């Protein structure tokens, strides 16, 4: 197959659109191709070792007097479980969705997919996600929680003060996720 031919055995047009008439492709694929052409996707993901993550968690200066941990599913479930275990706190989860597997927004705004957990007597919580890209998922989750609860942010990776990992650029491979 020639180098510039796509999966439908047809030449790739100079500019792919989401609804290419030459070869109908899934929108996520065409967005990924566009991002590669624009140089926005690194060619490789950085693998992270589980022990490195847990060692960093062991050294992190978590805030005092937390009542519990709430994880944002799906990506924040494992990070929230690790944090809750590290701090000896209970864990609750709420499900949101915003980005697809290619890290592209799936919807205009994140969508709440589950009931908001009953926090009972919790008054100060850590709201945990895996990454902070735009903060939209975290802010949507925060807005769904009771307004009288003090909610503190924590993510494993991002360019924010409350991110455990700020020294790795680009996408990462989490040790608990299968990549195909």
Description of the structure:
By secondary structure, the chain is an alpha/beta fold. It has one domain (46-173): 3-Layer(aba) Sandwich (Rossmann fold). The chain has helices spanning 27-37, 50-59, 77-87, 136-144, and strands at residues 46-47, 68-73, 91-97, 111-112, 124-132, 150-158, 163-165, 172-173. Strands 4-3-2-5-6-7 form a six-stranded mixed sheet, sandwiched between helices. A two-stranded parallel ribbon has the order 1-8. The longest helix has 11 residues, at 27-37. The chain is globular. Residues 1-24 have low confidence and may be disordered.
Largest sheet composition: 6 strands, mixed
Strand content: 15-25%
Average pLDDT, to the nearest integer? 82
The termini sit apart by: 23 Å
As a whole number of angstroms, the C-alpha radius of gyration is 19 Å
Quickly give the structural class. alpha/beta
Task: Give the ordered list of helices and strands.
Answer: HEHEHEEEHEEE
The CATH architecture comes to 3-Layer(aba) Sandwich
User: Which fold name is given in CATH as the topology?
Assistant: Rossmann fold
- State the strand order across the main sheet: 4-3-2-5-6-7
Low-pLDDT windows of residues: 1-24
In CATH, what is the class? Alpha Beta
What general form does the structure show? globular
Separate helix tally: 4
* Count of distinct structural domains: 1
Helix content: 10-25%
DSSP summary, beta strand count: 8
């Amino acid at each position: 197959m020639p180098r510039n031919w796509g999966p439908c055995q047809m030449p790739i047009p100079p500019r792919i659109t989401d609804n290419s008439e030459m070869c109908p492709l899934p929108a996520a694929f065409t967005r990924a191709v566009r991002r590669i052409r624009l140089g926005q996707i690194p060619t490789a993901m950085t693998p992270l070792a589980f022990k490195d993550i847990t060692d960093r968690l062991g050294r992190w200066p978590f805030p005092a007097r937390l009542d519990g941990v709430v994880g944002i599913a799906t990506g924040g479930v494992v990070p929230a479980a690790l944090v809750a275990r590290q701090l000896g706190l209970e864990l609750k989860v709420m499900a949101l969705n915003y980005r697809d597997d290619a890290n592209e927004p799936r919807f205009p705004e994140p969508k709440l997919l589950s009931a908001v957990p009953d926090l009972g007597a919790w008054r100060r919580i850590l709201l945990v996600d895996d990454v902070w890209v735009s903060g939209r998922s975290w802010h949507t989750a925060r807005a769904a929680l009771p307004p009288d609860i003090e909610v503190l942010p924590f993510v494993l990776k991002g360019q924010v003060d409350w991110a455990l990992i700020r020294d790795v650029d680009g996408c990462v491979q989490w040790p608990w996720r299968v990549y195909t």
